[in-house]
Model the fold of this input.
Amino acid sequence: MNEKELRRSMSVFPIGTVMTLTDLTARQIRYYEEQKLICPERNEGNRRMYSLNDIDVLLEIKDYLAEGINMAGIKRIYELKENEEENDERSTLTDDDVRRILQDEFLALRGIDTKGPSRFF
DNA sequence: CTTCTGACA
DNA sequence: TGTCAGAA
Done:
């Protein structure tokens, strides 16, 4: 990991700063942490300290939410990202994997846990 | 004053 | 998700 990535992953902001920077409530920010979408560190006083990376993810989450994607969908999007990274490292990506990822990406674009296909538009 | 955890009229 | 309490 280079210095640039190191700085972006350095936890330095208290939740208050993150709230003003992302327009999210403390409740939401903590909830997304429970959903393992971000992993802020804790300081000596058990206060959460966020990094620029955490803020970027929070901002992305806010955009997905604005597009109408629910938590289940957002989680899947990040799960797919993890798989993509793993595949890049081991170049184990087959044509069939690509097809499946694109398929899931489409489904994730709008919530999944919804009943029928009646909510496409 | 700011943040944390847990809980729910 | 909001919000309130009690503690740190």
